Amino acid sequence: MSVERAGSTSWRCGACGELHDELPFSYHSPAPASWEPELEDDPDSELGEEQSIVRGEYFFLRGLIRIPVLDDDRPFDWGVWVSLSAESMQAVTESWMREGREHDPPRFGWLNTFLPYEPPTGGLPADVRTRPVGQRPLIELHPGDHPLIAEQREGITLARVQELAELLLHP
To answer: What are the residue boundaries of the structural domains of the chain, listed by start?
Structure first.
């Protein structure tokens, strides 16, 4: 996971004891969980910034799982990858630079990123909702009893944002 820093919430880290200037409100996975380094030499595979293909038959789109932060105005974002069918990926690709794409119907996919939750997050069903050109799609997890689904539905506190920062910045 990589960190994108936003805002100016200083915090004392429970893992290292240091005072940090900013509390990260987003983390992003650089590649789908299905991506392997040897795929870089595969002519049928491509790791793009927003879309990826594995072996010419598995298609992935990058998006955001947005979680409300109950005691802050900013949301918390997980930057994740979702696998889509070939048909859905073609439709998303064709509308990628089209104004008004945010009005397209959502596309079904499977979460293809492992986040620090138990049970694992890979394979959770989701809907991909495109937004205006230049904005990553939003990923809406289907109802269920997974902790990530509960956080997206109910929100989290700043204390949970800090807990995630401590976990991810000091593995």
So the answer is: 25-155
